[in-house]
Design goal:
This protein is an alpha+beta fold and 197 residues long. Helices cover 39% and strands 24% of the residues. The protein has seven helices and seven strands, in the order H-H-H-E-E-E-E-H-E-H-E-H-E-H. It has a five-stranded mixed sheet with strand order 5-2-3-6-7, sandwiched between helices. A two-stranded antiparallel ribbon has the order 1-4. It is elongated, with a radius of gyration of 20 Å.
Length: 197
């Protein structure tokens, strides 16, 4: 079931209430357009709620001769922006997706579209990587999938411990790329040339 589109007027009313609740004057010049701006931002941040990521993969997949596909496809350095579901604060970073082709491949532009669709909803980084891997398994049936996410979380950098230099890395793997040697090889390709490898 597809959720309804973001209800912008309802978000605007909620933001106006939040401004009043923190003791601000929502009618002052600097805040007059804030509820509308937040509603527009939320419509963008949460647009992925209406997207079936596995279908994005499935509809982009094309059959190919397995003998001519190569051993591994890696798309690294995909810009990642999401919103943590615990505090509704952003987390930003990079996603790296690798897969071992089965009988089909996807257009390379599909990989960032899948990442963006799944990131554009209230998320946890740990779950996001798993969902990206599952979308490729369901939509493509590859021999293996590996998803590495590295992100900086607003809830860690701007509140509580305020650890501005910390980042979080998560790994999700399926099939052949869940095997330690193959996973290590794929991770080495992802980190090659970035000072981590």
């Amino acid at each position: 079931m597809t959720p309804p589109p973001v209800d912008r007027p309802r978000i605007e009313a909620a933001v106006a209430e939040i401004l009043a609740a923190i003791g601000e004057d929502g009618t002052r010049e600097g805040l007059l357009s804030t509820p509308r701006r937040v509603a527009e931002a939320y419509a963008e941040f949460f647009a992925g709620l209406e997207v079936d990521a596995a279908e994005l993969v499935r509809s982009s997949a094309v059959a190919s001769d397995p003998e001519k596909l190569g051993e591994l496809v890696v798309v690294r350095g995909i810009a990642l922006r999401s919103v943590c579901e615990h505090h509704l604060l952003p987390f930003v970073g990079q996603a790296h997706v690798a897969y071992v082709p089965g009988e089909r491949i996807v257009g390379l532009g599909t990989v960032p579209r899948v990442v963006d669709a799944l990131a554009s909803r209230p998320q946890l980084q740990e779950r996001l990587g798993e969902e990206i891997a599952d979308a490729f398994v369901e939509g493509l049936s590859p021999t293996g999938v590996l998803v590495v996410l590295e992100a900086v979380h607003g809830c860690v950098t701007t509140r509580g411990p305020r650890q501005v230099d910390s980042s979080t890395i998560t790994v999700a793997s399926r099939g052949a790329l869940a095997e330690p040697a193959a996973r290590a090889e794929a991770i080495a390709l992802i980190t090659a040339g970035d000072g981590r490898g």
